[in-house]
Amino acid sequence: MKGVNVGVAPVTYGTGDRAPRGEYGRARSDYTCAQDFAQYTEADHATYRRLYERQLQQLPGLACDEFISAVHKLGAPEQIPRFDDISERLMKATGWQIVGVPGLIPEEAFFSLLAEQRFPVTDWIRKPEEFDYVVEPDIFHDLFGHVPLLFNPVFADYMQAYGAGGMKASRLDACELLARLYWYTVEFGLIHTPQGLRAYGAGILSSAGELRYSVTSPEPKRVGFDLQRLMRSRYRIDTFQASYFVIDSFQQLFDATAPDFTAVYREVRESILAEGEIDAGQVLPGERLYSTV
Ligand code: PHE
Ligand code: FE
Fold it and tell me: The pTM is what?
């Protein structure tokens, strides 16, 4: 199974069909573990710093303001940050904490951590030869990509609601539909601002190549956020996305996903049966796309 160029796993969470590379023996029953700070070598700290600096200088004009204004809350990149330091700041801002995990975890465990306002962060970092390409999320993707927006109250509430919604989706056998929502928002979401399109998805923000591509390339399709349309849409895991969904605000995203999904899942299943799934890159008749200019 091939991963993406962004440090995002083929399966966003969940162990997938391949043995994950982390050491799970040290994890507690909820899959969290202490951040193994002693494991980091000087080379690991240098990898983090180089990744951070490369991404930071790309943010202006491409990342959303909420991300840019919060990214420094990760702390100076001279060293890999300590999870406890970030948690202290995050707790004050939005009530969230970050917790270490050895790598990908099963989706039920992932959902309940989010519902408890605990964001799981992989504690190991990619090797230098994986600088541009790593098949599983590592600490750089998880911290740099995901944590800054957890300082935003509305986005943080969305993540918590997603976790609670995931537990419900497990009972309704709807995890595959719900995972599409995570993929197209939390990982690969774009937001429309008065200054133009900007990225807020972690998979884009932690990617050296996809950040600019997602916001400026004329190639991919950029569709306005529509929950049912999104849940009918397949996604690509082995290359840059062919389609992105665009929100107007985090409040819009929160409000659109607040209703009970029980009926939504039923309706989406019915429309998939009637009209099929929508391929990545496919545009429906009459659908308006966002342009990059
Ligand atoms: N409203 C959703 C439900 O009832 C929960 C949810 C919220 C899911 C936000 C995802 C994001 O299932
Ligand atoms: Fe991620």
Answer: 0.94
